Amino acid sequence: MTLVQMHPHSASATPVHKTVADAMDTAEPQVWDDMTVEVALSVMASARAGHLLVCDNDGLCTHLVTQAQLTAVRDSCAYTDRVQLRDILGDRGPFTSPMTTMAEAEHVMPYRRLDALPVVDEQGSALGVLAIAR
After folding, report:
1. Residue limits of the CBS domain (predicted)?
2. Element (H or E) spanning 118, and its range?
3. Alpha-carbon distance 120 to 97, whole Å?
4. What is the mean pLDDT of each run of 10 residues along the chain (134 residues)?
5. What integer pLDDT is reported at residue 16 of this predicted model?
6. What pLDDT score was predicted for residue 8?
7. Distance between CA atoms of residues 120 and 4, nearest Å
8. In sequence order, which residues have a C-beta less than 8 Å from that of residue 67 and are 6 or more positions away?
9. Structure confidence at residue 129 (pLDDT)
10. Is 20-131 in CATH node 3.40.50.970?
C-alpha cells in the first residue's frame, strides 16, 4: 500500500493546516473486487459517481476505479461478461492518510496525475475519497 503523506511536521512548524480528513467525501460507493465490470458500471451509474472504491474480501481498500477505466475495459476486444474488477486492476494504491495536509495532497495529486485519491485508515480500510474539483 502506498501512502501519499511522507513528511511529519515538527512542533515548531506553522499552525496545523487543513487536512485531507477535513476535505474528503465520505459518501463514496464501495464495491468488492470480485464484482464484474458490467455490474460495477451499473453501480457507478446508479450512484451518479465518477469512480468507485474497490475493496478486497477483508474489506480493505485496494483501488479506486474510474468510469473511463471500466468503459475502456468493456469496449476492448478481450472483454467478456465474466471479467471481474480484480482481473483488471494492478498493484494496490496509491492512498493517503486522513492526516495528510491539503497542501501535501494538492502538490502530489497533479504530479501523479490523480483526479481522486482514496483516503484510508492505518489498517487500510476506506474512509473516503479526496477529489480535485474541476
Report:
1. 20-68, 95-130
2. strand 116-120
3. 6
4. 44 64 87 96 94 92 92 93 91 86 89 88 92 71
5. 57
6. 47
7. 11
8. 41, 44, 50, 51
9. 92
10. no
Q: What is the pLDDT of residue 133?
A: 67
- Spatial neighbors of 114 by CB under 8 A, at least 6 apart, are 94, 108, 132
How is residue 9 annotated by DSSP? Answer: P
Task: Provide the pLDDT for residue 6.
Answer: 42
Alpha helices in 1-134 (DSSP H): 20-23, 37-47, 67-74, 85-88, 102-111
d(CA 62, CA 74): 21
CB of 110 closer than 8 Å to CB of 16 = no
- Torsion angle of the four alpha carbons 35, 56, 43, 38, in this order, in degrees rounded to the nearest 10: -30
Rg (CA), the chain: 16
